[in-house]
Amino acid sequence: MIKIYNTQTKQKEEFHSIEDRKVKMYVCGPTVYDLLHVGNFRGAIFFNLVRNWFEYRGYEVTYVYNYTDIDDKIIKRANEESIKTEDVAEKYIAEFEKDFQNLGLKPHSHNPRATHHIDGMVEMIEKLIENEKAYVTEGGEVFYSVESFSEYGKLSHKNLDELQSGARVEVTANKKNPLDFVLWKPSKPNEPKWPSPWGEGRPGWHIECSVMSSKILGDTIDIHGGGIDLIFPHHENEIAQSEGSSGKSFVKYWMHNNFINFGDEKMSKSLGNTVTGRAFIEKYHPEIFKFMILMAHYRSQSDFSVNQVNNAVAGLARIYSSLVLASEALAASDVQRGEIPKKFVTLLQGAKKATEQALDDDFNTPEVFARVFETIRAFNSRFRPGQKVTPEIKAMAGGFRDFMKFVGEQMSLMREEPKSFLVSLDSMLLDHKGLKREDIDQLVEQRVQARLEKNFEESDRLRDELTAMGIEIHDTPEGTVWEVQK
Questions:
Q1: How sure is the predictor about 270, in pLDDT bands with cuts at 50, 70 and 90?
Q2: What is the pLDDT of residues 9-43, one digit of tens each?
Q3: Is the pLDDT of residue 204 over 70?
Q4: CA torsion through residues 395, 398, 399, 400, sign
Q5: 214 and 363 share one domain
Q6: 112 and 234, same structural domain?
Q7: Residues 6 or more apart from 172 whose CB is under 8 A from it?
Q8: Is residue 91 part of a domain?
Q9: pTM for the whole thing?
C-alpha cells in the first residue's frame, strides 16, 4: 500500500485512487520566459519518480504538466526583446524540453498551454459569477470573493484573518476584500488580449491550472503536486476556483517538494548568480543533478553546496565502479553463469523488498540509496578488480546488475555506459583533490616498472604515495589499474 504525505491533512495517508488502478496527476509546470532555475527542476525530477513508481505498482497514470505561456514576466521579456509573447513562450518551451530530454525523464501524458485554454477559463469564470463566488468591477476586472468560499485556507492552514494580516496581495480599490484575487483583467496597450463578456483582456494566473486540470482529468483528481512556494496563494486559489465552480472536491492528495538550498557562495560564483538547470547540467552532468535531487527526501531541503556536489560525484562513482565490475564479470565469455549463493540471493531479495517499502512510504529515497550502497558493499566484498571470474561470481554480477537496473528504472538513473562514465566521474574527483590524471598514470607506470625490475621496496613506496593521494591500485592479470578512492 502506497502512503503519501498529504499537505492538506498534514499526515501520511494510504493512497486510494478515485478510479480503480488509475492515477490522475497534475503538477504545476514552468512559466516559460527564461531558462529554468535549478530549483524548478526538483519537481520535474521527483514527480517523474512518483509517476514511475505508480506504474511499477500497476497503476495507469495520466500525468499533466502544464506550461504557463502568458504572464507578466513573459510580456516583460517580449517587450525587452521587441518580439511577440508567443515567440518568447515557444523559445523557452523548446529550451525546457531540451533540458528535460537531457535529464532522461519520461515524457508527460499532456503538456497543455494556458493560451490554448482561454475559452475554458472564460467558461469557468462565468460559472463562478453565476455561483456568486466572483464579481465583476466597473473596469472590467473579475475577482474571486474569498469570503464566499467557507473553506478558503484549508490547504495553507490559515484562517482569513491571518491571511489578511500576513499575505502580500495586490492592493486595489476595486476589491471587496484585500485577499480577493483576479480571475480576469483588462489588457494594457500592446499586451496580448482575448475577447470575454467583460471586455478584451487576459486571465489571471491561478485560473489556468483549474481549467486545464478539469478539462483533461475531470473535476476531481488524485494527486496535485508542486513546490511548497505554490501552497499559498496559487494552490489555495485553485481549490477555491475549482470547488467553487464544480461543487466537488478538487484534489484527494496534495504533494509539495521543498526548496533547494545553495550552502555556500562557491556554487553561485562558478555558475552565476542565478543557477540554471542548464548551467548545472553543462558544468557537471544530468546524472549528478538527478542523483542530488533524489538523495534528499522530497519534503526536506536539498543542499546544492560544492561539498554536496563532490559527495554526489563520489557516491555515483561508487555506484558506477560496481557496475563496471559487474559488466566485466558478465562479459567473461569463457565462464558459464552458475548459481547465485543463497546468502547473496537473500541479500538481494531483502534489498528489493526494502526498496519497495521505502518508495511505498512517501517515496523515501534516502532509504533506497542506503539499500543500494549496502548491496554494493556486499558485491564488492565478493568481487574485486583483477579477481578471477567464476560461475558463482558471474551469477552474483547478474543478480546485482538486475537489482541496480530495478532501482535505476524508478529513478531514471544508472543509464550511462558504466566504464566511460566512471572515467568522467573519476576526473571530477581528481579535480576536487587537485590531481592530474597524467601525473597518476606516470606514478603507476613507475610502480609497474619497479615491479618488473623486482624493486619491491620502490614498488611499495609508490603504492603508499598513491594511497596517500587517495588512489587505489589493483594488480590484475591484464595489468595494473587504478581508481580514485570512493
A1: low
A2: 999 999 999 999 999 999 999 999 999 999 999 99
A3: yes
A4: positive
A5: no
A6: yes
A7: 141
A8: yes
A9: 0.93
